[in-house]
Amino acid sequence: MTDAAPTPDPRAALVAENARLAALVREAEHTTEIPTCPGWTLTQLLRHVGRGHRWAAVMITDGATEGLDPRQVPEGKPPEGLDGTVAWLQASARAVLDAVDAAGPDAPVWTFTGPKPAAWWIRRRLHEETAHLADAQLALGLDVDLAPELAADGLSEWLDLVAARPGAELLPDGASLHLHATDFPGEWIVRSGDPVTWEPGHEKATVAVRGPVTALFLAMLRRIPADDARLEVLGEADVWRGWLAATPF
């Protein structure tokens, strides 16, 4: 990467992206099916996002040392009525920030990748929000208008999660993957190993995927096809397709 990419403020971004999802929830038909989350409607998507925020907030507050059963989350379902649903969804995002503030950003808490400071959950919940906002926009026939800096940060955050998966054969031995944003100062190199490793940078790889950063983010999360017209795949395309098949969201 030749230029420093702007870094989003995860606190402000979580509130802003949550507000954008809440605006869709207020206007859209809640029975709309979500093709990128098979079997879900918009109602199930918004419940998943809001409950997930509250789930993280409870674990932060309790200093959890193991994952909490989401069914045990207090107020894990929105109330009846559109206004109550929207308010519940927005309060869910704020609950994460309030929990971090009360516990302290460095307080240890359980995460998918081992104990981490409580503030880790803000960025994780932000990109859960960005991914599912994209799901809703795609289902409603809208453009995914994620800010480039959020798409780039979401891609990096996703690679962090994937790199924390030991024992998964994500790339063939000795293979590498180069992601290159064409509209934003972002490049990523992923290398095979157990676990895989990644870093920002530019180098010749087994396969390179070029395209707008939001398209790269959506492709990495399998929200658009591996051969989407916005993407240019150079090198061994089977390695790219194999990576996606091995890294579901």
From TrEMBL:
Superkingdom field: Bacteria
Mycothiol-dependent maleylpyruvate isomerase metal-binding domain mapped to chain residues: 13-137
InterPro entries recorded: DinB/YfiT-like, Maleyloyr_isom, MDMPI_C-term_domain, MDMPI_metal-binding
Leader sequence segment: none
Record GO terms (molecular function): isomerase activity
Domain MDMPI C-terminal: residue ranges: 149-240
Keywords: Isomerase
Matches recorded under Pfam families: MDMPI_C, MDMPI_N
Cross-referenced NCBIfam families: maleylpyruvate isomerase family mycothiol-dependent enzyme
Entries under PANTHER family matching the protein: CONSERVED PROTEIN (PTHR40758)
UniProt-recorded name of the protein: Maleylpyruvate isomerase family mycothiol-dependent enzyme
